[in-house]
Every structure is written in C-alpha cells, then in structure tokens.
Amino acid sequence: MNTLHAFLWSAGWVCAAAAIALVVHHLLFGLLERVTRRTTVTWDNSVVRHARRPAALAMPLFAVLFVLPDAPMDAGLRATFQHLIALGLVASVAWGVIALVDVVEDVVRSKYRTDVPDNLEARRITTQIQVLRRIVVVVVSIVAIAIGLMTFSEIRHIGASLLASAGLAGLVVGMAMRPTLSNLLAGMQIALTQPIRLQDAVIVEGEWGWIEEITTTYVVVKIWDLRRLVLPLTYFVDKPFQNWTRTTATLLGSVYLYVDYRVPVEEVRAELRRILEGTDLWSGEVCVLQVSDAREHTVELRALADARDSGTAWDLRCLIREKLIAYLQQRHPSALPCARVELGPDAAALWQRHA
Predict the structure, then answer these.
(1) Based on the structure, what is the number of domains in the chain?
(2) pLDDT tens by residue, 279-295
(3) Among 262, 251, 275, 256, which Cα is nearest to 327's?
(4) Cα 36 to Cα 46: distance, rounded to the nearest angstrom
(5) Which pTM value belongs to this model?
(6) Is 348 exposed, middle or buried (0-12, 13-18, 19+ CB in 10 A)?
C-alpha cells in the first residue's frame, strides 16, 4: 500500500509539473504569435511557428527534470524517469535542430521567390536549401536515434560485440545500403553543382516536363500532360538529359510551316512581327522568319520568337502557328501546299472536249 501511495504521489508530482509547463507553453506562444502578427519580419513568424511543437515537448520535460529530485519516489523509479526524460530531451533537441533548418528555409524562400518571371537565381537557391534540408533531417534523425539507443546499457554491449566484427559488418551494411548512400551522395552533388533545379524544363526518357520535387532519394518530373515521372537521384548524375533552363529561364520557340513556292516571304515576315507585337507572351527580343529548307514540293519556313519560360514558349508557338495559317488561308491561299499536274497537248485537247 505504501508503494502504491508513493507511486501515486510521484505520478502526481510529474503530471502537475508537466501540466504547469504546458500551460506556460500555451500562454507564452500565444503571446508570441500575437506579437509576431504585428510585424512584417519573416524570421520571427517562422521561429514561433516552427518552435511551437518542439517546445511543447521540451518544456514539460525540463519541468519534470526540475521537480524530480524532490519527488517522493524510490531511486529505481527516479532512475527510470530520468532515463525517459533523457530520451525525450534527445528527441526534442533533434526536433529543434530540424525546426531551425525549417526557419532558414522559410527566410530563404521569402527572399528568393520563384513565382516571378526571372527566377533562375531563386530556383537555384531554393533547390540547394531543399535538398540540404532533407539531408540534414536524415542525418539528425540517425544521430538522435543512435544517441537514444546508446543510453541503454544492453544495446551498448551489443554494439561493442558488433564492433569486434566491424569489417564484415561494414561490408554487409555497405552493400545493403549502397543504393541509399548513392542517392544521398547524388543529392549532395546535385545541391552543389545543380544540373537540375526546381521548375527546370527538362526532357527525360523522351518526356518533356518540369522538375516538380527533389527528395533525398528521387526526383519527380511533372510531365506536360500532368503525369509524373519518378526517377532516382543517381539518374541525373549518371545519364544524359536535356535541361532547357540551365542558364536562363528564357526560351526560343520555333514554328515550322510548309508552304508553296509562291509564298510571299516578306509579307509573312511582317505578319509574324505584327502577331508578336500583339501578344504579351513574347519577350520582345527575337523575331525571325527564315526559309530554312526548299524541298521538292514545298518550302520550309522557320519562325523564331523568345518567351520568358517554357510554358509561355509553348503557348506562343501555338499562337504563331494558328495565326500564320489563318493569314495564309485568308490572304494568300495560293501559298498553301498544292500538287501541280502538267498536261501534254493530247491530254489538254481531250480535257477541253470533255469540259
């Protein structure tokens, strides 16, 4: 009965300390949220938002740790509580480090916005931060789990016995973890050298799309028809692919038309200029129409125009194609492709009699 009474008193002390800490946490962060709403600074809002949940774990643990020496409990129960608190503090510290990384990511995203036309630098920085954040989360989680496990004496003995055969164990683990480690190293390489960035326009495996997401192990490519192509990170290190926005977001859009030899090239060139000047899809620098080929029955015209990004370039190409075809149909129908037949004298006379 005395043991039960002591346990209840101990539980009461622990619960009371945790409850008081949670109330203080609620009041403190409620006040901080009200203060940060009145400011326009990004980092203080981000700190309060990301620190709220790690603090909800750490503050009760510190409160229990503070009252634990005076709590009416035996040494064994106190040691158990101290061990649990140590595990919780390790988890809260790891959570806090991840929250700090999230704050840094929020600050960087606020300074480098990707929803503007000239977003090359912003996409470069955002990609680095996102990939490095994922790597930090993985490393911090592994370290926290390792520290937590090392607090158990039994596991320490098991670890010591494993270290005795570290060569074989390292070889086995290395072989088993080779794909994961390769992707982690590829992620670090992509973050530093950046062959791809978020929202880059790429052609991969014969598909055209945009880099939608870069994780620690794979990359998601959003195909133009809304399908998703998922590829390992090592793909973009080991295999060739096309990156249309590697150095700049601006792209040249090309349109090919096949017309008759009677086409008035200068008039079509002037019409192309008029079409481009009448749309905001055009960036205003490149406007070119050239005869790029002369074939047996048709002439190939190539129109070039620049756009601010890949999606706009696609829309501009479609607009140029539609407008030029409509112009030829209305103004110069003889310039459309046709098949010519030359009749000899006998065939011409026969045709006239039947006509």
Answers:
(1) 3
(2) 999 988 889 999 999 98
(3) 275
(4) 9
(5) 0.51
(6) exposed
